Amino acid sequence: MFKKGNTAFTKASFLNDLYSNVEIHNPADNKRTVDTGHSQFDLAFQFTADGADLVSDPTAFTFFINHVEQEWVTEDGVTYPKRNYTNIEFEKCGETHFSYDNLDEIKRIGVDNYYCFKHKNYSIGGSFYSPKYHYLEMKLRRCVSGASSCKSDSEIEALVKASRFSMAIVNTVVDLKDYKKPVQYMIDDGLFWELVPDFRKKTDIFLRKNEASFEDNYVQLGFPKEEEFYQVAETNDRFESESSKGDMLSIYLRIDKITDTYERQIYSIGELLGQAGGFYGALVGIGSVFLFIFSERLFVSSVLRKIYQIDSWQEKEKLDKKLRERHRKEYKNQFIQYKPDGRKVKVPYTQSEKFHHQAFEDIKRMNYLEANSEGNQFKENVLERCEQSMRERKVFKYGYKDILHYLFCCAFCRRKRSMRLKPGFREHLYFEIGQEKLLDELDCVTIIKAVRQLKLLTAVLLNKRQKFLMKFQRNNVIDSSSSGTSDEGQMNIIDLMASKNKKHVEIVNKKINKVIESFCDKPFQEIDKRVISGIVKKRFSDSDNENENDHDSRVNIGSSILEDEAKIKYLNNQERKLRYPSQEQARYRCFVCPVAQTLWRTCWDDRKACRIWRW
Fold first, then answer.
1. Which residues cross the membrane (predicted)?
2. Is there a contact between 596 and 559 (Cβ–Cβ < 8 Å)?
3. Backbone angles phi, psi at 281, to 5 degrees
């Protein structure tokens, strides 16, 4: 049913009015006129006798070509046709002067030895009784006897009996079963004339201007592919006695009064829907699908807006062509194996991933630096990173425009990797990931496990009296002053951060500063470290704190790979005269461990060594 072979073909013929006025200035736009300069139509000819070329032998025959423009004029009450003749020069075709693409076929037929027109910009149109009439005239005339330069009558008659006038035309044929190139061009060498002594042959060659319309798409919107082409439709031969001028062959190239129109239409989805339930039913079905997609995605996006957040840092990173190419190359090599502990560590390649990975590494190093003098300064650095990560959060928004983009740009056909590398499809990627995460958390098995764990924690942490009092909490009472909002207030704190109201933003900033300062006043507890780690890392476990003995070696190796590239560029742009770091550089030095400070001083003195260490 869906094969392109199941198509509808039609051919219609129309009669053109050739008697009305013909426009000469722009014949390419006129269906009653043929302009060979704007088409692939071309012709070539040869006149031979026993293999000898007679066109170039003026002692026997003379051949000439004229472009005739006829116009009816009236003088002294008499109307007669007035003709203007323009001579057209010709030359050997060779391999370049014949308008045909297949050079092998030109050589196989021998058209390269034919004669072609030097100038191909001529127009034909109208008829004999139309106000303007254009046609092409080709005449072969024998050399008149009695002239000193002519051969004898017996010699010319012998050449006439052995002569043959041949013509090769670029003709067209329509193959409606060919969906790649339905209009095909070919060399038609079937036209030839054998001359007869004392007789004159006249031939009219009618050139037909045809049109074709092809609708080969499964989804048809009323914009078919249209083509115009020329075709030699028919010829008309006549015999007359030889004229006094010695004309033996006259060929007239004229326009045909009939136009053929070809149409092809494949079996489309519209016809399938029409047969399935009619056009109205098809629209209702398509509208139902669109309504289902809109309602589903809007509902899911409203839930995701209330539950999840996204990192706006990722939105600020513009993925140019070079960065996308680097992502594709590094995507398969994201895991690098370190020799000291044999572990495979995922190396992040975006600024956001580098930032959060480095922040989590700093949190793990706090277990070993809090007892040292640099512990407080390192602690402030960790809190500063966490504060920056908190301020970069924003609410996930997915609205009508995103859904329309999802439908019309066929985002549902793209993979996650493709959407990740193209900024225009990033919102759809976030939606897919959030939807998967939401469905995973709403799974009945997950909910039952969470409820059971909560019951076990309640049984372990609360005694009988506390459990009894939990049943009478004020939060379970519904009265006129009750509110259905959460404990965080009527608006989400992430919404307040993106609010246009400066007071709301100021309140949120004060709250964040207050929370961060509360951690600076007291040492970190184990629960504090886990809560802070959850800000910069999605998954963590007790294994993150194991292998304490080889921690320093991992820190040094990880720092050499995960260092920010912008800081490397900043180091390389410094002048060689500066031997020691400035205050701004010293502020950065507190981010690294004491072992890395030694590498810093070495790199500052020798930038070449710094490149080797990839510092």
1. 278-300
2. yes
3. -65, -35
Cα–Cα distance for residue pair 322/146, rounded to 1 Å: 84
Mean pLDDT on 62-81 = 89
Please tell me the distance from the alpha carbon of residue 355 to that of residue 382, in angstroms, as a whole number: 11
Q: Nearest CA to 383 among 259, 533, 550?
A: 533
Q: Report residue 165 as tokens.
A: 């006038």
Question: Cβ distance 505 to 491 under 8 Å?
Answer: no
Q: In DSSP terms, which residues pair with 54 in a beta bridge?
A: none
Backbone phi, psi, residue 547, to 5°: 55, 55
C-alpha distances in angstroms, 518 versus 488, 521, 584? Answer: 19, 6, 27
Residues 511, 360: contact at Cβ < 8 Å? Answer: no
Alpha helices in 57-139 (DSSP H): 103-109
State both tokens at 429.
């990627």
Q: Do 59 and 150 contact (CB within 8 A), yes or no? A: yes
- pLDDT band (50, 70, 90) for residue 99: confident
pLDDT at residue 514, rounded to an integer: 77
Q: Which residues contact 123 (CB under 8 A, 6 or more apart)?
A: 24, 27, 33, 34, 35, 36, 134
- CA atoms in the 13 A half-sphere facing the CB of 534: 5
CA distance 82 to 255: 19
**Tokens standing for residue 281:** 């039913």
Q: Is 0.70 surpassed by the pTM of this model? A: no
Mean pLDDT of 285-301: 88
Measured at the alpha carbon of residue 365, what is the angle toward residues 359 and 369, in degrees to the nearest 5?
125
What is the structure's pLDDT at 394?
A: 76
- Please state whether 547 falls in left (phi above 0), alpha (psi between -120 and 50) or beta: left
Query: CA-CA-CA-CA torsion for 89, 95, 100, 103, nearest 10 degrees?
Result: 160
CB 27 within 8 A of CB 33: yes
Separation between Cα atoms, residue 72 and residue 130, nearest integer Å:
8
- Residue whose C-alpha is closest to residue 41's, from 110, 121, 105, 137: 121
* DSSP H helical ranges for 245-308: 269-307
Asked if 306 contacts 396 with a C-beta cutoff of 8 angstroms, the reply is no
Taking the C-alpha atoms of residue 44 and residue 173, their distance in angstroms, rounded to an integer, is 19
Over the stretch 494-552, which tens digit does the pLDDT of each residue have?
A: 677 767 777 777 777 777 777 777 766 666 677 766 666 666 666 555 545 544 444 44
Q: What is the pLDDT of residue 591?
A: 39
CB 270 within 8 A of CB 278: no
Which DSSP letter does residue 224 get?
-
SS3 506: helix
Report pLDDT for 167: 93
How far, in Å, CA of 293 to CA of 411, rounded?
13
86 pLDDT more than 70: yes
